[in-house]
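Supplementary Methods, section 5.1.

A reviewer requested that the exact input to the structure prediction be made available. We therefore reproduce it here, unchanged from the version used in the analyses.
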Amino acid sequence: MKQVQISAYGVPEVVAHCVELEDVGAPDIGEVVFDVLAFPINPADIMFCRGTYRLRPPLPATPGAECVGRVVVTGAVYSREENPSAVCIDFFLRPFRPLDSIEIGT
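The structure derived from this sequence is encoded cell-by-cell as follows.
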C-alpha cells in the first residue's frame, strides 16, 4: 500500500514523499477497505505541508482529507448495497458517500 507522507514541514515538493506501507489486513466489523483512485491537492494541503495550516500533527503525517476510492473488502456489518464499489470519502464530514449520490458542484 502506498501513502503520501511528510516527515518535516517545508516546501511541499521537497518534504512530500510516496512511501510503501504494510497491508492493512482484513476489515473488522463495521469497517471497509478501499483503494484510492484519485485525490485532490488543495490549498489547505499545501499549507499543511508548509506547517502553516491550523493543524500540525506529529510527524510523519499525511496531507489530504478527501478522495475518490473503490471499496474492495467490507466488514461483517456492511453489505455491497450499503457500500457501493465507488465512493467519495471526506474524512472530516462523512466516512464515505456513493458517487451517484453526489450532485455536481457540491
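The mean pLDDT is 79. These observations are discussed further in the main text.
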